[in-house]
Amino acid sequence: MKPSSGIPYDSIEMLFAFHVSEKARAKRDQYIMQFPQQLREAEKRSYTLEQAVKEILADVAEVAVLIKELES
Asked: Is 47 helix (H, G, I), strand (E, B) or coil?
């Protein structure tokens, strides 16, 4: 099934996953960089990419709810 943009559905999913991954990496890097150099490795282990992805997806879900409320 193709949406109106002509891009296959699975490509849109891949694009979404890529953007979430990039945002999560940026969020994690920004968080880690606020610590002194000697503490960054420990913070990398404690603040995982999985945790950052979950936070990004929670933000996306919140925006989706707001959009849905505005449309109704």
From this structure: coil
CA gap 4, 28 in Å, rounded: 34
As a whole number of angstroms, the distance between CA 41 and CA 51 comes to 16
The single-letter DSSP state of residue 45 is: H
Q: Evaluate whether 3 touches 12 at the Cβ level (below 8 Å).
A: yes
Helix (H) or strand (E) holding 55: helix 49-71
Q: pLDDT for 13-49, tens place per residue?
A: 889 999 999 999 999 999 999 999 999 999 999 999 9
The 8-class DSSP code of residue 5 comes to T
Q: Packing angle between helix 9-33 and helix 37-46, nearest 10 degrees?
A: 140
